[in-house]
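Hi P.,

Sorry for the delay on this. The queue was packed all week, but I finally got your sequence through. Input first:
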Amino acid sequence: MDGKFIFLWIAFNAAYAQELDDSDRASDRATFMGFLQKLCNLDTSKCIDDLIWKEFSGSIRTLLDNPYVFHLFWEFQRGRICEEE
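Then the structure:
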């Protein structure tokens, strides 16, 4: 089940995957957040809520504990920021 969540999350994010400048990042984030908000608004039976809290809460915690999902990790890897930042 954990693998299924991760693969679905990767597929979901692939729709938004782009190399963005910092100036584009805010508008991309707003578009993404608007999309998520629309999904949640349309989910009147709370299926997404149930899946997140009942089925995938452990997977989400594991994902959030992974440093590779954070923007600043990749900025350091690209040499755009120093390790202290």
